[in-house]
Prior knowledge:
The protein is mostly helical and 176 residues long.
Amino acid sequence: MGWFDTRVALCYQSIGMSLDKLEQAWQLLQEAYQAQIEGDYDHAVQLYEKSLAVQPTAEAHTFLGWTYRFQGRLEEAIAECKRAIEIDPDFGNPYNDIGAYLIEMRRFDEAIPWLERATEAKRYDPRHYPYYNLGRAYLAKEMYARARESFQTALSLEPRYTLAREALDRLRRIVN
């Protein structure tokens, strides 16, 4: 993961974070992420918590939330994302993740504002995810025109995004 780049380091240094502590926290975050992708969620949680103890970052809170989601702990996942936003309101991932978790909980009306904020975030990549998730929320609410627009935007940002293409095809079958 190439997360710890100059741009991220400068962002955190500008709000007073020590570069040494930040590097140590990033190393633990990378180890946690590796445990997470290997499916060792309990170990990942421990490592994310260690990273946060060294130096709280929006990324560590967001990824801890993602791990909680895999454990079925959606309310805790949302709480971690809100902590991430407190640290860095320009980081778009936690907004999208909150929206996605709320969709999973079938709380579509609550999800939409979070996803809209993700689309406007200054620091967010990949940009197509919140549009896809907005499409999912609108589709669930039977707001088909908005769903179509959201899926199309996701595809304009990432033409190879299969989930958005499949969702758009599904939507076409529903309305035709």
